[in-house]
Automatic annotation (TrEMBL):
It comes from Labeo rohita (Indian major carp). PANTHER family: NECTIN-1 ISOFORM X1-RELATED, NECTIN-RELATED. InterPro entries: CD80_C2-set, Ig-like_dom, Ig-like_dom_sf, Ig-like_fold, Nectin/Nectin-like. This is Nectin-3-like isoform X1. It holds the Pfam family C2-set_2. It is found in: Membrane. The keyword Disulfide bond applies. Keywords: Cell adhesion, Disulfide bond, Glycoprotein, Membrane, Repeat, Signal. One of its GO terms (biological process) is heterophilic cell-cell adhesion via plasma membrane cell adhesion molecules. Residues 76-146 form the Ig-like domain. Belongs to the nectin family. GO terms for cellular component: adherens junction; membrane. Its main location: membrane.
Length: 170
């Protein structure tokens, strides 16, 4: 029997999506092998949840519980660009994303500038605005990707205006 457990006491797998398949094989020596499988449509919310296999039999003095952590792989779901504290004189923005496995590549694009140039540089998930002039005003896009896909987040920057973070899901 497979039992679902979760820190919040809410099942990791919604009941309408789960199916438990059990197979029993009787061997020539009179022993049995019983295997159970949890079959479900994976969701991001299921990632890192614990399922527990509960083994009971008349020949056992007590039940045996075996925990298994669910791993769900998914592309970047939410990509955000936020200000990043840096000791340099540049304005620095950081791109972050929720993904499993983690993001393996960040790419920066601009709708109005070639990146990099003498006023803009990138290093991994960071965008550096080196010369804070009005010609840098515009949209900057971060593309985060892993082996399962990609997501994009954006930043609208204008000289002298406090920048809010923007994100999108793809």
């Amino acid at each position: 029997m497979v039992v679902l457990q979760d820190d919040t006491q809410i099942d990791a797998v919604p009941k309408q999506y789960e199916h438990i398949s059990t197979n029993t094989v009787k061997h020539l020596d009179g022993t049995f092998t019983v295997s159970s499988s949890l079959i479900a449509t994976p969701t991001v919310q299921m990632n890192q949840k614990i399922v527990q296999c509960l083994i009971r039999h008349a020949a056992m003095k007590e039940e045996l519980k075996v925990d298994h952590k669910i791993t769900v792989h998914y592309p970047p779901q939410l990509v955000s660009v936020t200000p990043f504290k840096d000791l340099s004189s540049a304005e620095v923005y950081q791109c972050e994303a929720d993904a499993n496995p983690a993001v393996t590549q960040f790419k920066w694009h601009s709708t109005h500038q070639t990146i990099p140039n003498d006023a803009i540089k990138t290093e991994g998930n960071k965008l550096y605005l080196l010369k804070l002039t009005s010609d840098l005003t515009g949209m900057y896009i971060c593309e985060a990707s892993n082996e399962y896909g990609k997501g994009m987040g954006s930043l609208c920057w204008q000289k002298g205006v406090r920048t809010e973070d923007y994100h999108s899901e793809l």
